[in-house]
Design brief:
Elements (H helix, E strand, L loop, with lengths): L2 H7 L1 H11 L4 H16 L10 H13 L5 H4 L3 E5 L7 H7 L4 E5 L3 H13 L5 E4 L13 E7 L4 H8 L3 E11 L4 H14 L5 E5 L8 E7 L14 H4 L19
Helix pairs in contact: 1-2, 2-3, 2-4, 3-4, 4-6, 8-9
Length: about 260
């Protein structure tokens, strides 16, 4: 069997190819394999994706594509917002053992799975926080990378990330097809949060992937002290909402 055909059918070979793409050492490949096995074997894994080949594409490759960007590679302390089943945080933590990762997830059963996965993969650089992002006060101003995948609209994700980022820190948000309205909303939110952007990069984490984009927003000035707003307010009154013709703002903070 050719190496290409083997990679198409053997999960271990597929992960090895993925590891080679990003120059990952053998120990990282072994940990990625353990993570994929856990997704298939753990009945409490909070994902519908159990098939190894699909998990490698949609979870591992889609997460690791962020390694193509310098702000991710140079990060020393990162937070994965609303981490869900641990993506992109767990694969990135495996790939970047010198970076401290905090995976914040408010749903207890999901955060419990992330804890198990971190133990199975022997990740000493992962901390799991079972809380809403807005309530994680210990992280304010302390991270230089925030990641978010399948969490919320871009303007809402920006509001979650901005208070946590140190000056010069970067938010990386995973999205699908480009949408000018989404990008405009993100820009309006960024202007209120001390962030720039968003800049948009098309990525192809695996050959069949279509319409995959990463949105990068950097923190250029201090985020106003009124952020973070109370839990739930960011999604109820998003900063990126278009202003009304009268100039009234429906996203003012109410305390």
């Amino acid at each position: 069997m050719s190496r290409r055909k083997q990679a198409a059918t053997d999960p271990g070979a597929r992960i090895s190819v993925l590891g080679a793409r990003y120059g990952l050492p053998g120990v990282a490949v072994t940990k990625l394999e353990a993570l994929v096995r856990l997704l298939g074997e753990d009945p409490l894994a909070p994902t519908a994706i159990r098939d190894p080949a699909t998990a490698i594409d949609d979870h591992l490759a889609d997460s690791l594509v962020a390694l193509e960007f310098e702000p991710v590679l140079r990060a020393r302390r990162a937070v994965d917002l609303g981490s869900g089943a641990g993506f992109p945080g767990l694969p990135l933590a495996i790939a970047l053992p010198g970076t401290e990762f905090v995976l914040v997830e408010s749903v207890t059963r999901k955060s419990a799975f992330i804890e198990r996965a971190a133990d199975v993969c022997e990740l000493a650089n992962v901390e799991v926080v079972n809380a809403r992002v807005e309530s994680w006060g210990e992280g304010v101003g302390r991270v230089d990378l925030a990641t978010a995948r399948a969490l919320a609209s871009l303007d809402v994700v920006a509001e979650y990330a901005a208070p946590l980022l140190a000056l010069g820190g970067t938010l990386v948000a995973w999205r699908g097809r480009r949408d000018p309205e989404v990008e405009a909303a993100g820009a309006r939110a960024a202007a209120q949060l001390g962030m720039d952007g968003p800049s948009v990069a098309m990525v192809q984490p695996y050959p069949q992937a279509q319409h995959r984009h990463l949105y990068l927003m950097s923190k250029v000035t201090d985020t106003p002290a009124r952020f973070p707003r109370r839990p739930g307010i960011a999604s109820k009154r998003p900063l990126g909402s278009a202003p009304s013709p009268s100039g009234d703002s429906s996203d003012r903070t109410r305390r």
